[in-house]
Amino acid sequence: MVGIDIEGLATVYPNGVRAVDGLDLSVADGEFFALLGPSGCGKTTLLRTIAGLEPASEGTVRIDSADVTRLEPGKRGVAMVFQDYALFPHMTVSENITYPLKVRRVAPATRTAVAERTSGELSLQGLLERRPGQLSGGQQQRVALARAIASKGKVLLLDEPLSNLDARLRLEARTFLKKLQKDLGITTVFVTHDQAEALALADRIAVMQSGKLRQLGSPREVFARPANTFVANFIGSTPMNLLTGTVASGGSVSIAGGSLPAATGSVPVGAEVTVGVRPEYLTLSIGDVSGPSIRGSVVVAENLGTQSLVSVECDGTLIGVTVPEEHEPDPGATVVLTASESRVLLYDKE
Ligand code: ADP
Ligand code: MG
Hints:
Layout: E1 4-12, E2 18-27, E3 32-36, H1 43-51, E4 58-63, E5 66-67, E6 78-81, H2 93-103, H3 108-121, H4 137-150, E7 155-159, H5 167-184, E8 187-192, H6 195-201, E9 204-209, E10 212-217, H7 219-224, H8 229-234, E11 241-248, E12 252-255, E13 258-261, E14 272-277, E15 283-285, E16 294-303, E17 307-314, E18 317-324, E19 334-338, E20 345-348
Parallel strand pairs: 3-8, 3-9, 6-7, 7-8
Antiparallel strand pairs: 1-2, 1-4, 4-5, 9-10, 11-12, 11-14, 12-13, 14-20, 15-19, 16-17, 16-19, 17-18
Helix pairs in contact: 2-3, 2-4, 3-4
Keywords: ATP-binding, Cell membrane, Membrane, Nucleotide-binding, Sugar transport, Translocase, Transport
Protein name: Multiple sugar transport system ATP-binding protein
GO molecular function, one term: ATP binding
């Protein structure tokens, strides 16, 4: 069981920046775990602290149940792929892949065998004698992965490994990486600032902001039930509607001149709240509906492919709702928005 357990971890740079600011999290054996957050939130620092490349200022890191907090990087059993791949330009692909084995004085024949096997796993056959400068971006990225895998680390740490690839290659590499990780079953921490990538790849996602954990959950959980407005804003390809509302009686909230059903629980009637509802979870109808609803008029519709994102003005507030492209209403049309109670989230007013 090769898990990673992080407790009370802080990493403070000499200039006083608390890049990781008191983190607790556990990565399970064989899990594909994503660290997601905006640029500068401390993702790389956290990964480097797990690897031992930055010293922890507070707290502990355990790998495979052993406390490695004070252990040097080479003794932690981790393999890391850096954002810029960090390949050696003067070495061949084969030499790059087996460099960690050479450092450990593994015999040349064994190294050759490992290079051949790993190049097969990463679709690099026929490229072993080339130098990094003679490879495409996607191939370089796979060489960096091959080197990490060949080093036989117990855990794989990947710092934005797909961010230097163009959009199409990135999608291909995503699928490839997910399959490889499942085939190898290696515990993996994957850093990204791209919420779609994290949702597509990870078993679980830790959303970070300013060195702190804001939510930890499955892709489904962080998408459908963001724990706070930061996560709500950050996750989803169309932004969540975050509207000021007032708790009304009978399990509903008043917003934008209308109302939506909501699990108001112990929040008192009359309390001001922030109401979150994803455009994907609102239903747009023409004509009257029963139950709580919001009435408005269509301002503009934006094509998203098979869906359209419709902006509806409701009592001075713009609300986004996605509809199938063929049901896109005309600008100016009067429409009614509804949602089911489980899709309407309430946050403390900030
Ligand atoms: P991310 O990978 O999420 O973009 P980083 O871990 O690179 O974030 O950076 C987190 C914070 O730490 C930022 O404020 C950044 O400016 C700061 N930082 C990163 N590296 C250093 C360093 N070597 N010295 C001082 N501050 C740093
Ligand atoms: Mg980074």
